Amino acid sequence: MNAMGDASTAHGRTTHERPEPQSFGWLGWVVFAGVIMILMGAFHAITGIVAILDPGFYVVGQDGLVVSVNYNAWGWVHVGVAALVILAGFGVLAGQLWARIVGIVLAVLSAIVNLAFLPAYPVWATIIIALDVVVVYALAVHGGEAKQLQE
């Protein structure tokens, strides 16, 4: 104990100080994943609304899809998934473990759903699948860094 009454280390730091955080070199990827999830949620919502309001917009008709489903049902699925992805994206930015897990599951499901949607809108579906892969990587490998920043 020093004269001030608190325990000190040899380097002058008190033992009550928080330890130095681990490297946050990949924190940018986690923030990127959270923001991309929010954007992807918005993209899914737009895709769903377009499918509900104007099924003739897509390159391939309902009969040309991998999965036989009408665009109205497809649109509502996209809108529902969009709400979940946006919520999980904000959770990832807050460093929540549940949001990382939900984000990984939803990104994998999004990639699978967009694989089935590929004939209807090929370029857009390919972009979304690529973003899904990046989100899964960032959340699975480096997702815990956002939580460390909160501590």
TrEMBL record:
Keywords: Membrane, Transmembrane, Transmembrane helix. The chain crosses the membrane at residues 26-53, 73-90, 97-117, 123-141. Pfam families: DUF7144. The keyword Transmembrane helix applies. Signal peptide: none annotated. Residues 29-143 form the DUF7144 domain. This is DUF7144 domain-containing protein. It comes from Saccharomonospora marina XMU15.
